[in-house]
Amino acid sequence: MCELAEEVSEKKSYALNGKEEVEAALEKGDESADCHQWYAVLCGQLAEHEGIQRRIQSGFSFKKHVDQALALQPENPMAHFLLGRWCYQVAHLSWLEKKTATALFESPLSATIEDALQSFLKAEELQPGFSKAGRVYISKCYRELGKNSEARQWVKLAMELPDVTNEDSAFQKELEELEVILGH
Hints:
Blueprint: H1 8-28, H2 33-47, H3 52-72, H4 77-91, H5 95-105, H6 113-126, H7 132-144, H8 148-160, H9 166-182
Helix pairs in contact: 1-2, 2-3, 3-4, 3-5, 4-6, 6-7, 7-8, 7-9, 8-9
């Protein structure tokens, strides 16, 4: 529902309600990889509407729950995709955001583009064609690592997949831009 909503307040409301439901499920027992995965997703959705301190706090929670989902279900492509997203975001944090995280939580956020790439590739290995967005991120990672030939290959592979989610549709423009930047 959150993804279908158009108003920011409505998106936030759906995400908050969903997070409360998953919290209640986790209180009954925390052995469900799906619950941890969806808790992470909802943390990420809520973080989009928060200030820097809350976003960082949500980032730590997101990572904790993705790690728990992977511990319970290591062959879950979605959890690997989510870990890739977390690594990609952390690798792109500004100096100020990293310093804020360290000051607030006494624990620096650390991840590299290579870390993100490995997680996205693992999701693809577990379920080829798992996600158009995943293939876009693979292409972006390769480009940022200076591996343009591999980036072009993944742009092509991403173009082959249909848009399944709103995120996939949103990435179509980015794919077209990557195609131009990387050359055909």
